[in-house]
Fold this sequence. Notes:
elongated; Rossmann fold; 9 helices; two-stranded antiparallel sheet; binds adenosine-5'-diphosphate; alpha/beta; binds magnesium ion; transferase
Amino acid sequence: MTDNKITKEKNKVSKLSTDAVEKALNKTFEEPKLKKTRFRPNIIITGTPGCGKSTLSKTLKEMPDLKIKLFNISEYAKENKIFESYDETRDSHVIDEDELLDRLETPLREGGCIVDWHCNDIFPERLIDFVVVLRCGTSALYHRLKARNYKDSKIQENIDAEIMSVVLEDALDSYDKRIVIELQNDEDKNIQENVDKIKTWIEQWVLDNKTGVTNEIDEFYKDRDMPEDWDSDEE
Length: 235
Ligand SMILES: Nc1ncnc2c1ncn2[C@@H]1O[C@H](COP(=O)(O)OP(=O)(O)O)[C@@H](O)[C@H]1O
Ligand SMILES: [Mg+2]
């Protein structure tokens, strides 16, 4: 090879590596850790304890084409030890909600999550697409909670909450009414019916939102009123 040719080759190689670095850098900019847009819906499955949240959520997760990421919040909090305190009267741990929200921000921004929890009012509206409130008749609920060996006082507390629609009211207070849906879940056949309904909503949401839905608070509230209790530190 002549000196001239060698110089040319060297220039080519150095150009190639510059291109590769530039490409890698651009890729980093194109794929930030926190996604600005999601292309699959996030769903909260909520309801009084015993209503069937975990049964329904697990059945949905088993459907491979839905590619669901499931967060059973009670289990998730235990696994990740994100407790704030212990409530003696209720005999249960109190979850550190700020820590929980920080940890769920990234997966919720990616979309396709199901959140299984009886509390539904702490998640930011901008990240939630459907809130499914499972409902159950008192007789079925009593038998389910009795089978869990709950104390009578705890069974009664949950049955009262179900009769008074406490979880539904929380959802209606926290999210746009159009995304809150009640589903009856008393009998075995309801499980498949509810799975079919939710699967259809997910598929329709994907079709309706081909360009994605924003995860960003400013974009989300562009055409709406900011909530009165909005705290600019939330982000
Ligand atoms: N549609 C249904 N019909 C009959 N039993 C159900 C139904 N859904 C759930 N169950 C049963 O009720 C009990 C409580 O369900 P689970 O999913 O653990 O409720 P949650 O997660 O809301 O506390 C379980 O034993 C489950 O098998
Ligand atoms: Mg459960």
